[in-house]
Amino acid sequence: MAKWAKGLIIAALAVAAVGLVLARYDIVGKMIGFAAFTLGGLVALIGLIFGLFALWRGLHTPLSAKKGLLGAMAIAALYTGFLASRPMTAGDAPSLHDLTTDLTDPPKFEVLALRPDNLVGVDTVENWQKIHAQAYGQLRAITIAQPVPVITAKAERLAREAGWEIAKSDPARGHLEATASVSFIRFKDDIVLRIQPTADGRGSKVDMRSVSRVGVGDLGVNARRISTFLEALAKD
Question: What are the tens digits of pLDDT across the range 190-213?
Answer without folding.
Answer: 999 999 999 988 899 999 999 999
